[in-house]
Amino acid sequence: MLLGVITAAAAVVAGQASICLNASTLRENSRMERRIISSGSPYEPVAGFSRAVVVGPHVHVAGTAPVMPDGAPPLEGAYAQARRCLEIIVAALAEAGARPEDVVRTRMFVTSAEHWDEVARAHGEVFRDIRPASTCVVTGLLDPRWLVEIEADAVLSV
């Protein structure tokens, strides 16, 4: 069997119901609106990132650390910090028009494997019945007081 590229003209002649568009045609026709969501983090303007970005039906929530309002120190313990991360994420989702039920993927970054149980407990309180695809990675974080950072991706219902 010989595989090849079918041009639009060949597809019409062959009676194909659908065709593949070339990259330049896709680029011209598929420009989606991009909306940014800020949480007011002091790191956003410095590092040039947004709490979340909405493109089409997709909502991407950035790595969210347990940053407290007004620069207060982070809460003690992995569970409390994970809950704070999730509060910030849920607020960003709401501003984007999404709910926790729309989340399809999360990523949890912990500074030690021993924090997994507490972070998983907080994650389960929000996502137990939703069950997004999820990953947990042990790594270092920017602030040594942070024990966890969480990301989320959602797809808006249309």
**How much strand content do the residues show?**
15-25%
- The SSE string, one letter per element, is HHEHEEHEHEE
For the report, how would you describe the main beta sheet?
A: 6 strands, mixed
Q: What gap, in angstroms, lies between the N and C termini? A: 40 Å
- Structural class based on helices, strands and sheet pairing: alpha+beta
**How many H/I helical runs?**
5
- What do the pLDDT scores average to? 86
Give the fraction of residues assigned to helices. 25-40%
Characterize the structure shown.
With 158 residues, the chain is an alpha+beta fold. Helix content is 32%, strand content 23%. It has 5 helices and 6 strands, in the order H-H-E-H-E-E-H-E-H-E-E. It has helices at residues 8-14, 23-29, 43-47, 78-96, 116-127; strands at 34-37, 52-55, 58-64, 103-110, 133-138, 148-155. Strands 1-2-3-6-4-5 form a 6-stranded mixed sheet, covered by helices on one side. Strand 2 (52-55) and strand 3 form a beta hairpin. Helix 4 packs parallel to helix 5 (116-127). The two termini are 40 Å apart. The relative contact order is 0.17. The model is unreliable at 1-26 (pLDDT under 50).
Secondary structure: elements and pairs:
Elements (H helix, E strand, L loop, with lengths): L7 H7 L8 H7 L4 E4 L5 H5 L4 E4 L2 E7 L13 H19 L6 E8 L5 H12 L5 E6 L9 E8 L3
Parallel strand pairs: 4-5
Antiparallel strand pairs: 1-2, 2-3, 3-6, 4-6
Helix pairs in contact: 4-5
